[in-house]
Design brief:
Layout lengths: L19 H15 L4 E7 L3 H9 L3 E9 L4 E10 L3
Antiparallel strand pairs: 1-3, 2-3
């Protein structure tokens, strides 16, 4: 499954923007909290603004950025974090 941005796929396209990604994240966040974590971090490529909006709606904030280099291209990567403090 691909969630976020302008792409969303599962076996059916009617799951796009139906809240599935948020529900999966909510369940994962609860599990991580129960393990004693105080925060979550993730990265989003700059060319995926839809994914960035999704994660910001989940409470993540951009904490920085870095450059990802491959043989053929460079990508700006946003670093995001969400605090899980009570």
């Amino acid at each position: 499954m691909i969630l976020g941005g302008d792409r969303c796929s599962w076996s059916r396209t009617d799951t796009c923007n139906a809240g599935l990604g948020a529900r999966v994240h909510w369940a994962l966040e609860g599990w991580v909290r129960n393990q004693g974590a105080t925060g979550l971090r993730l990265v989003v490529q700059e060319q995926n603004p839809g994914a960035l909006r999704f994660w910001q709606r989940q409470g993540y904030a951009i904490t920085g950025q870095t450059l990802q280099r491959t043989r053929t291209r460079e990508n700006v990567i946003h670093l995001l974090r969400k605090s899980l403090d009570a």
